[in-house]
Structures are given as structure tokens and as C-alpha cells.
Amino acid sequence: MKKILLTSLLLITITGCSEFAMLMSGGSFAVSQNSYAKIYNAADMLTMMSTKKGIKQHAYEKGKKYIYDNTVGLVYEH
Known about the structure:
Shape: elongated
Low-confidence stretches: none
Largest sheet: none
Radius of gyration: 26 Å
Mean pLDDT: 75
Strand content: under 5%
Number of strands: 0
Helix content: over 70%
Number of helices: 2
């Protein structure tokens, strides 16, 4: 009986601790995401000021050119 009670108490304590730890780690993840968002927005603003296009537009154009350059001749046209 004591082993079952001790095991149950230990299990409840361990899972409660892990939930608290997960909750705290999730909070730090949200703070770090906010920091990354601020850094990205600052870099995007500087990019727009110097090139008149944002980071997403640059990535879209490079990706589009890469896909087009690597698929020319591979696509069968009727």
C-alpha cells in the first residue's frame, strides 16, 4: 500500500513539475520570438530603405528565378 501511495505521489509531483517547466519554457520562447520579430522588422526596414523592396520580395524573386532557371526544358509543353 505504501509503495502504491509513494509511486502515485511521486508521479503527481513529477508531472506537475514538468507542466510548470513546459509553461515556463513556453514563456521564454514567446519572449525570444518577440525579439526575433523586432530584429527581422529592423532588418527589413533597412533593406527597404536601401533597395525599395522588402526581404520577402527579394526572397520571392530569387526563388522564382531559381525555379524558372532549373525547370526550363523539363516542362513538357503541348
